[in-house]
Amino acid sequence: xxxxxxxxxxxxxxxxxxxEMKNRGEKISMLTAYDYSMARxxxxxxxxxxLVGDSASNVIAGHETTLPITLDQMIYHASAVVRAARRALxxxxxxxxxxxxxxxxxLRSSIRIMKESGAHAVKVEGGAExxxxxxxxxxxxxxxxxxxxxxxxxxxxxxxYTVRAREEAEAEKLEKDAKLLEEIGCFxxxxxxxxxxxxxxxxxxxQIPIIGIGAGNGVDGQVLVTHDMLGINNDxxxxxxxxxxxxxxxxxxxxxxxxxxxxxxxxxxxKECY
Length: 274
Ligand code: KIV
Fold this sequence. Notes:
By secondary structure, this protein is of the alpha/beta class. The chain is built from 11 helices and 8 strands. 3-methyl-2-oxobutanoic acid binds next to strand 6.
């Protein structure tokens, strides 16, 4: 099933529409995309937002963390997604090391992403610590999505991928950071792997949309890593992940069949030749 066909006049989802969706209580759907073929399927299915996540570092490049992916690599992934998606709003993670240092670098990185990929917004991890960078990016007219809770770019500070903000002090800082990001002009915030009650409180007290991953159902939308929800990574099973397919098995079976047919000489047959 497709949300549109080739002749449909399509209106691009905007940050303004996401705000309207929150206002009328319609949940926002968001998944990650890193390449043209997958982005086409995601977009035609009707996803509201495609996130070119720095999780590409894990699921595409096979790194243990999101830290190694570069700005050039993020732009490469983002431009492939932009070429595919006609409807979804496309948000791109600014990678580790390309915005935390100083606000001029943050501005330069976000302008490169917008100019060279054609994406519509950027996402950054952090609160008060990156306030100046966020303000500088916003001052150039680039929409910014925040990201709080478990922030994978800070994994070596935490040491683990367990649930964040269970302790009162961390929960209070998260609430303050979320408020700050809204005040300075972010259009939405991702909350990753925090208690559902806290996420609901933040979503209820802020005007802007709050998108959760492992943050319960009391928020304004949900995001997952596409390869995880499709069951392509069969060794990643966190509690928050709902698997909508078992593509690891489906693809593995297809490859095994192909090998069998090639080895036996069954492929190609007469109809598959010129
Ligand atoms: O990089 C990513 O995929 C993300 C999501 C987990 C929100 O930031």
